Amino acid sequence: PYMLEAQSGSIINVTSIMGLVGGVHYPNLAYHTAKGALVNFTRALAVEWAPRGVRVNAVAPTFVRTPLTQKLLDEPGMEEKILAETPLGRLAEPEEVAASILFLASDSSSMITGHTLPVDGGWLAR
Questions:
Q1: 7-11, 72-76, 113-117: which has the highest mean pLDDT?
Q2: Around 78, how many Cα atoms within 13 Å sit in the side-chain half-sphere?
Q3: What's the chain's average pLDDT?
Q4: In the annotation, is 31 catalytic?
Q5: Which end of the chain is more exposed for a tag (fewer CB within 10 A), N or C?
Q6: Which is the catalytic residue, given 31, 69, 103, 112?
Q7: DSSP state of 24
Q8: Would you say residue 27 has pLDDT above 80?
Q9: 12 HSE (CA, 13 A, CB side)
Q10: Stretch 101-107: mean pLDDT, rounded?
């Protein structure tokens, strides 16, 4: 409500690359459905709130090395498979995702709304 009243602001949702591809490689129906919904929620809210000066975007990280992903990465061969499918050949670091969020929140992105920025090392380009 404060952003709408001020007619200014930036909302950044965090989704996943799996919200953009439907989980072809790592099926998890509930996860992919929720992340895909967040991508479209971002678009719909951006259109609705743009006339009020509020920008709405999202970031879609690839696999990020965190305690949350460690169990998946510990599965035999899984980290190697992910790295082989990532053109930059490495996992994302939390700081890289944070930097993309800071960009979308900054005045440097003042003409960007309704988009989902993949932070994926080229994973979606394949």
A1: 113-117
A2: 12
A3: 93
A4: yes
A5: N
A6: 31
A7: S
A8: no
A9: 19
A10: 97
